[in-house]
Amino acid sequence: QPPKKKVEAGKKPAKPRTPTLINGLTKDEMSKEQLEEHIVRLREELNREREERNYFQLERDKINSFWEVTVRKQEEVEAELKKVDKDMEEAEARHQLDVKVYKQKIKHLQHEHLNVITELKSDSLAASEVLEKEQEQLEAELRKTIRVDIQELNIEQFDKELELVCSTKRLLFCVTAGVETTALCEKRMHVLQQDLDNVTKSQISDRESHWDSHIAALTKDHSKIYSNTEEFVAAMNTDADELTRFKLKRKSLKDLKSEHEILEQKFSKLQLERDELCKAFTESAEEEQHKDMEVEKKLQALTESQERTEAQLSVVLSASNTDRTALSLITKKIEANIDSRNTAIKILQHKINLISTVSSLFAS
């Protein structure tokens, strides 16, 4: 005996486990109805958390799919914007090249026009020089004729008069011829000038009509490019609105994600509490099962004791030489003992039924 006491004294005492409180009460302090209500409440919370988890998982999947579609659309819009920017740059380069060519052609036309005017001026100067030379030749011939006539007048007066008349006639003829020649030259110059002006006007008109048509085509192309640019700007504004809505949806998605994370944390916390409750209930159920076994043993012992008492009572009643007064006292004591034991048996059976009911509820 003493060595056993030393061994038991050498062992460390087990630390008492802190009981789990439910609504300020321990499991032992709670009644069957309170436990059932708490179990139903836990089940409702568990179902509600599961439904919320499923709902948020569906919302997360929807948001992820919408996010992928939106990202894909954004990439397509950015590619289209790059393509439109490239087309606009190419159109601008072509426009600049057309403007450069147009300016070069205008310069070339101006140069040709100046060359034509210069040639016309040079031709006019040459024609005037030719007329001046012809007029000078006629004047020289007239002076020579006049000198000859004057020399011949010195010989004879008659010859002088005759020669004077003849020279006068010749002079008139020469002057008339010179005037006619001058008029003819001027008329020829006027005709040449009109022909030159007509040719110049026709060339200028042709070139102006050609450049007017070219400018009209360029204006039409520029109007088309401007309308396309306005459509592109409108599409860009629409895309900007879509991008703004997308940013708002992405922000709401972040908020939903953060809320989902918070709910997941709450759900994890509830799961931990549920696991702790289940663990505590399992331990409590094991303890109650152990107590149930002990109660059953006590019940069996009480039943056996009752049976022995009843056997003894029957033996006593069968004895004929027993005092009636003592027998009645013994009978009353035995009946009282039997009643108390029956009451204890009923209480134990009620506890056993309660434990079985709670165990079946948690098991389901």
UniProtKB/TrEMBL annotation:
Main location, first listed in the record: other
Domain of life: Eukaryota
One GO BP: flagellated sperm motility
Biased composition range(s): Basic and acidic residues: 1-11
Subcellular location(s) per record: Cell projection, Cilium, Flagellum; Cytoplasm, Cytoskeleton
Range of residues in the leader sequence: none
GO cellular component: Golgi apparatus; microtubule; motile cilium
Coiled coil region boundaries: 25-94, 121-148, 246-280
InterPro entries in the record: GAS8 (IPR039308), GAS8_dom (IPR025593)
GO molecular function, one term: small GTPase binding
Record key words, sorted: Cell projection, Cilium, Coiled coil, Cytoplasm, Cytoskeleton, Flagellum, Microtubule
Ranges of residues in domain Growth arrest-specific protein: 212-348
Family: Belongs to the DRC4 family.
Protein name stated in the entry: Dynein regulatory complex subunit 4
Species classification: Eukaryota, Metazoa, Chordata, Craniata, Vertebrata
